[in-house]
Design brief:
Distance between the termini: 103 Å
CATH superfamily of the largest domain: Glutaredoxin
Number of strands: 7
Helix content: 25-40%
Strand order of the largest sheet: 2-1-5-4-3-6-7
Number of domains: 2
Largest sheet: 7 strands, mixed
CATH class of the largest domain: Alpha Beta
Order of helices and strands: HHEEEHHEHEHEEHH
Structural class: alpha/beta
Number of helices: 8
Strand content: 5-15%
CATH architecture of the largest domain: 3-Layer(aba) Sandwich
C-alpha cells in the first residue's frame, strides 16, 4: 500500500497544478472585462439611446432639432419644443431681401400656403435674425406694418436679433428653411423652392421643397429630398 501511495503522489500533485493554472487563466480573463459588466450580460443601452435623442448644439438631419425660445412680433415668447407632436417649418426671413420680397410682395402663394398649413395644425415660424441697425431689423411699428402688408401671421414672426437661433441652425441666407417632424427631428433643410433655377430657366416647373417635405410627413412617408442649397 505504501508503494502504491508513493506512485499516486506525483499524479495528485500534477492534477493540483493543472487546476491552479486553469483558475489563474479564468481570473485574468475576468480582469480584462469592463468594471461591473458580467460575462453574459449586454451593456446597458439606455445611456446610448439618451445621447442619440439629446438635442445637438447644431442642427443635424435626423437628429433632434435644437430648441430655442424667441419673442414674436406680438411680444410673446415662443418655444420650439412647445410644438411637440406637430410638424414645424422654420423659415429665416429678411423682408428687405429681394428673394423674400419675391415671395411676400410680388405674390401671395407662400402666405396662402402658410395659412393652409395652420388650418392643418402645421406650424410655420418665420424667423428674423437681422441684428439691430441691419437690413431686415425694424422697430415695432414698422414691423407691424410690414407684416400686415405681406399678410403674414404676427404670432409666428419671431425675433432673433442676437442670432442665437440662427447660429444653432447655421442659417445664413434668406429664405433658409427647415422642416421638423412630429418627433422633433430635422427632416429637411435648404432652399424654400427652386425659384433661383426657374429665373435662369423659364421652362422649369416650380418645385417647393418645403411643401414636398411637409406633405410627405403628413402622409407618414419618407422625405425624399432632405437637403438643398439655400439661396438668398
Amino acid at each position: 500500500m505504501k508503494r502504491l501511495a508513493w506512485l499516486l503522489l506525483p499524479l495528485l500533485v500534477l492534477a493540483i497544478s493543472i487546476n491552479a493554472f486553469a483558475q489563474e487563466g479564468a481570473d485574468a480573463k475576468d480582469a480584462d472585462k469592463k468594471p461591473n459588466e458580467k460575462a453574459d450580460e449586454k451593456p446597458d443601452e439606455t445611456d446610448t439611446e439618451k445621447d442619440e435623442e439629446a438635442p445637438p448644439d447644431k442642427a443635424a438631419l435626423d437628429k433632434k432639432a435644437p430648441d430655442f425660445t424667441l419673442t414674436n412680433a406680438d411680444g410673446k415668447e415662443v418655444t420650439l419644443s412647445g410644438f411637440k407632436g406637430k410638424i414645424v417649418v422654420l423659415e429665416w426671413v429678411n423682408l428687405d431681401c429681394p428673394w423674400c420680397k419675391a415671395h411676400y410682395e410680388q405674390g401671395d402663394a407662400l402666405v396662402k400656403l402658410q395659412a393652409e398649413y395652420r388650418k392643418d395644425e402645421i406650424v410655420w415660424l418665420t424667423i428674423c435674425s437681422s441684428a439691430e441697425g441691419k437690413q431686415g431689423n425694424f422697430d415695432a411699428e414698422t414691423l407691424k406694418k410690414r407684416i400686415d402688408k405681406a399678410g403674414m401671421d404676427s404670432a409666428s414672426y419671431l425675433l432673433d436679433a442676437d442670432g442665437t437661433a440662427g447660429r444653432k441652425y447655421e442659417a445664413k441666407t434668406t429664405p433658409h428653411c427647415y422642416v421638423i417632424d412630429k418627433e422633433g427631428k430635422l427632416k429637411y433643410r435648404g432652399a424654400l423652392d427652386n425659384l433661383r433655377e426657374r429665373r435662369k430657366d423659364k421652362a422649369l416647373d416650380e418645385v417647393n421643397y418645403v411643401k414636398l417635405a411637409v406633405d410627405a410627413l403628413k402622409n407618414d412617408k419618407q422625405v425624399e429630398t432632405t437637403e438643398t442649397t439655400p439661396y438668398g
